[in-house]
Amino acid sequence: MIQESTVRPLSAYIMLVVCLALLLITILFPALNLLGRMEASIIASVVSGVILLFLSAGFIINNPNESKVLILFGEYKGTVKDYGFFWANPFLVKKNVSLRARNLNGSQLKVNDKLGNPIEIAAVIVWQVQDTAKAILEVDDYQQFVVVQSEAAVRHLANAFPYDTFDDDHEPGLTLRAGAEKVNELLEMELNVRLARAGIFVIEARISHLAYASEIAGAMLQRQQAIAVVAARRQIVEGAVGMVEMALAKLSEKEIVHLDEERKAAMVSNLLVVLCGEKAVHPILNAGTLHH
Question: What is the superkingdom listed in this entry's lineage (predicted)?
Fold first, then answer.
């Protein structure tokens, strides 16, 4: 596997002076007939022009956070990462590779989660080229490679975990909705493994869109609402039972009234109705005794 090596070509300013001199020769020799013979002056002008064109092909302008991968007759010769004005062998093929961080806003994918529910999922990925030699020489198109492998990683992640869990009787495992930070971390790790062949480093990867597919979204919303209602009712009942227990204990402790088992059952029933009912209770005043 090819590994990146950095090189620093010659400064281009000396060669620029040479090229300017050749340009003067190309223009002035035939115009002024400096060699005394027009045929010789034209020949000298043509030769200098050809040399000028050849040498001009060796100039390299490298901007900050850019690089040039140098290839000579199919052989990798190194990568220029320093920014500036350089000159190198004109026969070198120079391929530009940006070293800037880039964003990939992935498209929404419809996949099945671990439980088989169809969901929509998308991710935003921040990446940059770390090894220019691999990016150019190990894959055909490294930008397209990032897109395809990112979609594959997101699909694999969605298939590995459920969107959500509805089982309250067991300890919930990792889900796409509840375990966002862990899911993002796993996605970033998988992407770095997949893209290492192309010399790509993933700086950050996050799920940007997550929802049930439209065909089951309504049913899943009703299910979530039902679970929320059951959880709320459970909390209300637990609180009501505690309040009834406290009321009976206080009545017995302070000996405000003595109740037999039947009266206690009736009192417990009435208190639970009052505390657990959805609507406000309208009390009925008892003008007599507790036994009439």
Answer: Bacteria
